[in-house]
Write a structure and sequence with these properties.
The complex is a heterotrimer of chains A (672), B (101) and C (497). Chain A is mostly helical and 672 residues long. In chain A, 71% of the residues lie in helices and 4% in strands. Chain B contains 3 helices and no strands. Classes of the chains: A mainly alpha (672), B mainly alpha (101), C mainly alpha (497). Chains in contact: A-B, A-C, B-C. Chains A and C meet through strand 2, helix 5, helix 6, helix 26 and helix 27 of A and helix 6, helix 8, helix 9, helix 11 and helix 15 of C.
């Protein structure tokens, strides 16, 4: 056994509290056959995550009190699977990585629970829909906490499947619509493809470790050097020749799992469809927590990827490709949640770029800041959707800042953060990611990767501002009846928004990169915290280069912003509205109307067309969704339906013939 | 002169093959039943041949057991065929294909 | 000549089941003379069967915890009650007993409450008890036939239903054909060893003799038919679909346990020295069965048929354990059987509880809107479907993990990967059950009946076991500390060597 940390009974309460909440809801619904009193439901369902957050804070404080080298708490509940060779405890460990994830999950999770009270309030269904929703939400939180707290691969997998299951239940929550049910199922099935990789990874690990087989992370870290140099033969047409490092193969298997959960190419298609679920679900599961599980797993297995350069490079490039691809897809979407969904896929790509480049703490930093600003964006869009009576199409919005000043303000903060303007949180984390790509000499083509990241940053700024302008600026395109009823939502909705806005604004200061931190005397708290847990990349980049990179990032963001402003604010020719919106700047541009036209014709229109016609309709809907996902299902069905089905003819003597042939083959084979 | 073991086994194998082909190819349910009985009896012949070769009683006992079991099986089989016949007025095996795919 | 020293305790479970069958037959005659209430007779006969099966299970449990091997006739060992037999008997007995409980309300609902049902069930169960305890090919064949013949009748129990007729006919035809093949295999094995006893075969089986090899091959084929392994699986979907649900449950669950257990004993005790050469054969059978079962299940719309293909797929996972040929692999098989019994029984019990008004609930559409009408049943069926699929936290996951892990440990990594792939595909069709129940509305709002006490009892037991084994497969906490399911399975297998 490897000494893995200080024992405590505290940790089990973190996932247990939400589980208890879910159980109370479930049993209550089952026994009473109707909803419990609303205040009671609210108290239980929001109390559970808040209590879990409190316990996490206590554990975090205790963790900080430990000396640097043994910074981990361990809570082994019991021996879950003891099969002789492999033994796995239902055990939790709490090191710096888990601490950060746990704080984000319980913190943002609590805020979203509070928000859901207001958001789901109009779900007056007779079958206890409100309570059922919170039961699933609490159950999800429990599974997510199991995932980040698990001290071995099996507990992680328990949580991993649990979050998938809850996500499926919540996407299909409004099941009146068959499409939602289909989306929920699709999310689950696509995730299973990823889980296949995960499980194969586990079994390959067990197989290669032989007598030292273990699933415990601390022990794995200790025994992994044994197989670090082993190779396996693979088909020669695969890149890298006929001999692969074993760790590369295992790492790729686990990464396939991460691709499914974190919506990377080619398994990302479920995430945009998952927007069929209620908006708080999108915020909690499909932005802040579950989809980052893949990034978390890669970071948790960083010791594996450190020995598997091929796998790490694949991760970095898959991340980069996904970031760019998803960003270009977001350009042409008009559904407010679809834009955010593609944006999430793209931002997750950034995280994998960092993780693949060995900058694991940068990846986790971006997980944290992304959780703040993307949850804010989703919840903000939820507030808009609520105000617009469940209208999600930005074609029928516009000018909403008149009615929704608070929502507009917080949304603005989030847009500034995701677009990467200093000093908002997204700037610092994205800067770290880009820097890690630029400096990662071990990754082939790392500077191209950096360039992709930079282009993506510009596109990100463009589509986020586009969304913002189309929603909050200009003339309102909704009908008069809807316009009359637009109003700011209640405090349970606005409260979490404001808190998240503050976090999105200042979140970057938790992990301030050294070049900025030195200026204002603020240490990189997150980096220092994660130092002992995650391997740190060795940067050989001068300060001047760092400033230049940051400047380039700001430049890209500004460029994207300006194009968006041209497109959606200055050119529609609504002078009065625009003047009041942008003042002197717009008057300046008004005279250059033809510039807009040229820009529009040369850059924006083709870009939108490519995004919509080629990427969205052909690549996404056609190739990936059609060929890969539906194609596999169709292939299975065709194989079963046409080949095997006719063998099952219903004629008994046909079965007898199969049996006789089978018997003859077996006997002949045994006699050979 | 005792019959050589090889002849007995050959007989049993031939009987077994005839029974198998009969079960596979005949359309009348009753004939198929008879073919399966033939297969069981082929096994019985083999048991007896081997029992004599090994001078062991086990084979004889086994044959008695198989005869009893086969009788029970045929009784049940005929019962099923009669139930089928009552419902369908036919003993053609190819018509019994409601359940498939 | 001395009177033989017989150990009656060795046949106690078997005797209770067989006598139970006789008492049920007599009881029916006696009751129908005095009572006219069919429901009462049905319930009384069921309780009678349950008590006899309870005695059998009790004897098996006592023999299991005792741990000694009892041979019925030590001078001529054909039947023994050892730890392995006791484990299998207890499993089969509990499954049959629970099916009797669920049948109390199911049979009247579909209008087939005749007393012979319980007698046939008990006789078939007695055959299984004989099968798993047999240490001689004669006893093995007798057990196999005693198990099968009543099942042919039970499959056709709904006499006026064409599908039930057809199910019985197909099962009978293919079953007796397979029996003939198996019997011929026994004859050939007898020919090369001169004996039918397992110990004598083990000592005298000549490894290179072609007649012996053909005999062994035919024996394996006979069992491959009973467990519905591809390519000997084609009868199973048709038979399972046509038979009444309670009979389908009984066939799918107990027969599989008995046949796998008997095969396991045969391979270790009689053919131990040559089993290693069969590893490749089981490899192919397992892979083929997993692929066929899972792929065909995808296109099904009939629930019983879907569960039939699912049970074929599970037979494939179980065969992985046989391909390993290690004690761990066989132990994983026995543990898997334990999980398989309770998970499948739960799923079938939900279907039984949904049968009403003379018709079975057997298509996917019948489940539409169930979550709204019967949320409890919907939740339970979801739990069982998830366990069949192998979601962590349920027993199904642990069982699969042990089997795959034993395959990996013995170097069969590719087979384990095929197994994982199969279970990935299986999610697609298992998930259609909750989708149908939770996310679609019923076409007609026919009020569904409330589940009866017997059904609820079965469901509760199965749900508790599925969750319990999911979290405590090897050690249980507190007062249940004595429950060590994995160790039980392992020690039962280890005893065979």
């Amino acid at each position: 056994m490897v000494e893995s940390g200080t024992a405590t009974d505290l940790l089990r309460w973190i996932p247990l509290l939400p589980l208890l909440g879910a159980l109370v809801h479930g049993v209550g619904l089952g026994l009473l056959r109707r909803e419990m009193a609303r205040p009671l439901v609210i108290a239980i369902s929001c109390g559970a995550p808040i209590a879990a957050f409190a316990v996490t804070c206590v554990a975090f404080a205790r963790l900080l009190g430990l000396p640097g080298e043994q910074r981990a708490l361990v809570d082994s509940v019991y021996n879950w699977i003891g099969s002789g060779r492999v033994s796995a405890d239902l055990a939790f460990s709490f090191d710096a990585l888990t601490a950060v994830m746990c704080l984000v999950v319980t913190g943002v999770g609590s805020l979203i629970h509070v928000y859901s009270i207001g958001y789901m309030d109009d779900d007056h269904r007779d079958d206890g829909g409100f309570q059922r929703f919170f039961a699933y939400l609490n159950l999800f939180l429990c599974a997510m906490l199991l995932l980040v707290l698990g001290d071995n691969l099996l507990v992680l997998f328990l949580g991993w499947e649990g979050v998938g299951l809850c996500s499926y239940l919540l996407i299909g929550f409004w099941y009146g619509d068959r499409w939602n049910a289909y989306c929920g199922m699709k999310a689950f099935v696509v995730n299973r493809i990823g889980d296949f990789g995960f499980l194969v990874g586990i079994f390959l690990l067990l197989w290669s470790l032989g007598d030292a087989a273990t699933l415990n992370f601390a022990e794995l870290r200790a025994v992994l050097p044994r197989i670090a140099e082993q190779t396996v033969s693979v088909p020669a047409w695969l890149p890298g020749g006929a001999e692969w490092k074993l760790t590369t193969l295992i790492g790729l298997c686990f990464f396939l799992g991460a691709c499914g959960k974190s919506a990377q190419i080619p398994l990302y298609t479920w995430l945009p469809d998952a927007m069929a679920g209620p908006t708080p679900v999108s915020a909690l599961i499909h932005a802040a927590t579950m989809v980052t599980a893949g990034v978390y797993m890669v970071c948790r297995l960083s010791f594996l990827y450190e020995t598997a350069p091929g796998a790490a490079a694949t991760i970095a490039w898959t991340g980069g490709a996904t970031a760019l691809f998803a960003a270009t897809m977001a350009i042409a979407q008009t559904d407010i949640k679809k834009v955010l969904a593609y944006s999430t896929v793209s931002q997750l790509g950034y995280m994998f770029v960092a993780a693949g480049c060995g900058a694991y703490s940068a990846a986790i930093f971006h997980v944290g800041t992304h959780a703040f600003f993307k949850a804010l964006l989703f919840l903000g869009s939820g507030a808009v959707i609520l105000a617009m009576h469940h209208e999600q199409d930005t074609d029928r919005m516009g000018g909403l800042r008149r009615w929704l000043p608070v929502t507009h303000a917080v949304f603005l903060v989030a847009v500034l953060a995701i677009a990467g303007f200093p000093p908002f949180s997204g700037f610092f984390s994205k800067d770290e990611v880009l820097l890690s790509a630029y400096a990662a000499h071990q990754i082939p083509g790392h500077q191209a990767l950096w360039a992709i990241g930079l282009v993506t940053a510009a596109i990100t700024a463009f589509y986020m501002w586009r969304l913002h302008f189309r929603t909050f600026f200009g003339e309102c395109r909704a009908d008069a009846e809807t316009q009359r009823h637009i109003h700011e939502p209640g405090w349970t909705v606005l409260g979490p928004l404001v808190v998240l806005a503050v976090l999105s604004a200042v979140g970057g200061f938790f992990g301030l990169p050294a070049i900025w931190g030195e200026k204002i005397g603020l240490p990189n708290a997150l980096g220092e915290l994660l130092h002992g847990v995650l391997p740190q990349p060795e940067h050989h980049v001068s300060h001047a280069t760092e400033y230049a990179l940051a400047g380039a990032a700001i430049g890209a963001a500004t460029l994207g912003t300006l194009v968006a402003a041209w497109m959606y604010v200055w050119s529609p020719g609504v002078p009065a509205a625009i003047r009041s919106a942008t003042g002197a700047l717009s008057r300046l541009v008004e005279n250059k109307y033809y510039v807009d036209e040229i820009y529009d014709a040369l850059i924006v229109r083709p870009l939108v067309a490519i995004s919509d016609r080629v990427l969205f309709r052909v690549v996404d809907a056609g190739v990936i969704d059609g060929a890969l996902v539906n194609g596999t299902a169709l292939g299975v069905r065709a194989f079963a339906g046409n080949l095997l089905k006719y063998a099952q003819s219903g004629l008994t003597q046909g079965y007898l013939v199969t049996m006789v042939v089978g018997t003859l083959v077996i006997v002949a084979w045994m006699l050979r | 002169m005792p019959v050589p073991l090889a002849h007995v086994i050959a007989l049993s194998a031939i009987l077994f093959a005839i029974g198998t082909v009969g079960a596979l190819s005949r359309r009348n349910l009753v004939v198929i039943l008879m073919s399966i009985e033939l297969m069981l009896n082929a096994a019985n012949v083999a048991f007896l041949g081997f029992a004599r070769a090994w001078a062991s009683l086990d084979g004889h006992v086994m044959v008695l057991m198989v005869i009893v079991v086969a009788a029970a099986e045929v009784a049940v089989g005929l019962g099923i065929v009669i139930a089928l016949f009552r419902n369908r007025e036919s003993v053609d095996v190819e018509e019994v294909s409601l359940l498939k795919w | 000549m001395n009177a033989p020293q017989l150990d009656m305790a060795a046949i106690a479970p078997l005797a209770f089941a067989a006598f139970g069958a006789l008492f049920v037959l007599l009881g029916e005659v006696w009751l129908t003379r005095r009572r006219t209430n069919e429901h009462f007779i049905n319930a009384a006969l069921s309780v009678l069967s349950i008590s006899f099966l309870g005695l059998s299970v009790y004897c098996a449990g006592a023999a299991f915890s005792d741990g000694t091997t009892r041979v019925f006739d030590p001078a001529n060992p054909m039947l023994s009650l050892d730890r392995f037999a006791a484990y299998s008997i207890a499993l089969i007995g509990i499954a049959s007993l629970l099916i009797c409980f669920a049948s109390i309300s199911y049979l009247p609902q579909v209008g087939i409450n005749h007393g012979e049902y319980y007698a046939l069930l008990l006789l078939s169960t007695a055959g299984m008890f004989l099968l798993v305890g047999a240490t001689d090919l004669m006893a093995l064949f007798l057990g196999l036939e005693l198990m099968s013949i009543p099942l042919y009748v039970m499959a056709g129990f709904d006499r006026r239903n064409l599908r039930s007729n057809e199910s019985a006919f197909k099962y009978f035809l293919v079953g007796s054909f397979a029996s003939a093949i198996l019997l011929y295999g026994i004859a050939l094995v007898y020919g090369v060893t001169g004996s039918l006893g397992f110990d004598a075969i083990r000592a005298g089986f000549p490894p290179g003799n072609p007649i012996g090899i053909v005999g062994l091959g035919l024996l394996v084929v006979g069992f491959a038919f009973k467990v519905a392994s591809a390519p000997f699986h084609q009868w199973a979907p048709d038979v399972y679909e046509g038979a009444p649900t309670s009979v389908t449950a009984y066939m799918a669950i107990t027969v599989k346990v008995a046949a796998f257990a008997a095969l396991l004993r045969l391979l270790t005790q009689a053919f131990g020295p040559v089993t290693a050469s069969l590893s490749d054969l089981f490899w192919v059978l397992a892979a083929l069965t997993i692929v066929v079962g899972n792929v065909m299940a995808v296109i099904q719309t009939n629930l019983k048929r879907l569960l039939a293909y699912s049970s074929i797929a599970h037979a494939g996972y179980l065969l992985i354990g046989f391909a390993t040929g290690t004690v761990e692999g066989y132990g994983a098989v026995l543990f898997y059987l334990l999980v398989y019994v309770f998970t499948n029984l739960g799923a079938f019990a939900v279907l039984m509880a949904l049968a009403q008004g003379g018709r079975d609930c057997d298509t996917l559409d019948d489940l539409a809107g169930l979550a709204r009408q019967r949320p409890g049943l919907a939740a339970l069926l979801t739990l069982f479907a998830l366990s069949l699929a192998g979601i962590p936290g349920t027993a199904g996951f642990v069982a699969k993990f042990f089997v795959f892990e034993s395959a990996v440990a013995s170097g069969q990594t590719v087979l384990a990967i095929i197994g994982v792939l199969g279970s990935v595909v299986s999610f697609y069709y298992y998930l259609r059950l909750p989708v149908q129940m939770y996310m679609s509305e019923a076409a007609t709002e026919t009020p569904r009946r409330h589940a009866a006490t017997g059904e609820l009892l079965v469901l509760a037991v199965c749900a508790v076991v599925v969750l319990f084994l999911g979290f405590f497969p090897s050690h249980a906490p507190g007062v249940l500390g004595a429950v060590r399911a994995l160790e039980w399975a392992r020690s039962s297998v280890a005893m065979l060597y």
